[in-house]
Amino acid sequence: MSGLLLKGVSKRYGNGINAVSNFNLDLSTGELVVLAGPKGSGKSTILNIICGLEAADEGEIFIEQQSCAGVTPKDRDVSVIFPSHTFYPGHTVYENLEFSLRLVKLPAAKRRERIMKAAEDMGITGILESLPEELAPAESFAAILARAVIREPKIILIDEPFPDIPPSEQELFWQAIINLNKKFKLTMLVATNNPEQALALKARTVVLKNGYIQQVDGVRKIYETPANVYVAQFINHFHMTTVEGVLSEGESGYVLSIDKASSVIPVFAPENKKLSNYVGREVTVGIRHNGLKPSRHAESGIKGRFEEVRDENGVRTGFFKSKLFDTLVDVDASVKAGDKVTLEISEGSFFIFDRDTGKTIL
Ligand code: ADP
Ligand code: MG
Prior knowledge:
Blueprint: E1 2-12, E2 18-28, E3 32-36, H1 43-51, E4 58-63, E5 66-67, E6 78-81, H2 93-102, H3 108-121, H4 137-150, E7 155-159, H5 167-184, E8 187-192, H6 195-200, E9 204-209, E10 212-218, H7 219-224, H8 229-234, E11 240-250, E12 253-258, E13 263-267, H9 273-276, E14 282-288, E15 292-295, E16 302-312, E17 315-321, E18 326-330, E19 340-345, E20 350-354
Parallel strand pairs: 3-8, 3-9, 6-7, 7-8
Antiparallel strand pairs: 1-2, 1-4, 4-5, 9-10, 11-12, 11-14, 12-13, 14-20, 15-19, 16-17, 16-19, 17-18
Helix pairs in contact: 2-4, 3-4, 4-5
The structure holds adenosine-5'-diphosphate (ADP) and magnesium ion.
């Protein structure tokens, strides 16, 4: 069954900004979907329209097949989690969870039952008697998620759940969201401007740019086959450089020459019709840095040298510099500063885009 359906939703603010344009999305009940895009891409506007804090100018919203037209925010059964939604200090976690049930009008025994069940499912039984100010960030996040489910909403919306969490702790947070979705089988939409988070949630993902959908698919699929240069750059680990190149057809297939052929990349794509239209033309090449490997003998790749090599607890890192870009790569013990090197680009780590439209050719 459809858990949430958005049909042709558009929103223009008074200042003339089109925050969301013709947004269409269908989530099945129990599905977790990620809304990914940088700041200003329209994520919060979409969430606010779903929960009823903002009105759309156009389009329709259905929650479990019921139209939201004329339904007040309170009656939509949507729980929203904003980063600013914290607990009341000086009251235990249990008390805080209970506050949010006051509005539901349940007998005390029922309230207790729901709180205990949510606490168990979210792994926070041990902190129910703690004060919010005593909790570790991951614990308080799990408790905030528990608070969102005990009202038994039809949908949970999470907006930029943890902007200030150190990367070392983020994993726990991502896992808490995944657990919540699995345990409660809730329809969830999670907005994030953090690509690592989008990748870690391993869900169907919508990539937004200035209010327009760029691509919708499993996040791994998007990472491997981005629709355009914007998506490739956003759904990415580490860094992607884009450079201009020229596509030509050599004896053993297509070749990309970059920087007046100082760097050459073979393109393994025999009989690619789309590519053959681009022979002799300038294209945009996207190179993912995590797909680069140093090689002394490579015929093709990005030519440069190691400016510096560092050894930290046996992990050696070379600072690679070339005319095109600088990057850090793992190196072995034989590499020293000053060495000339070619960085080979592994298959699947570079993309070719139409220079004018940005659309992916390969
Ligand atoms: P995100 O959550 O992805 O950062 P938003 O939905 O907050 O994006 O914003 C989308 C666009 O709408 C941005 O250009 C933003 O400046 C604009 N915007 C958001 N809220 C308002 C508002 N209340 N009034 C005017 N413009 C707004
Ligand atoms: Mg936002």
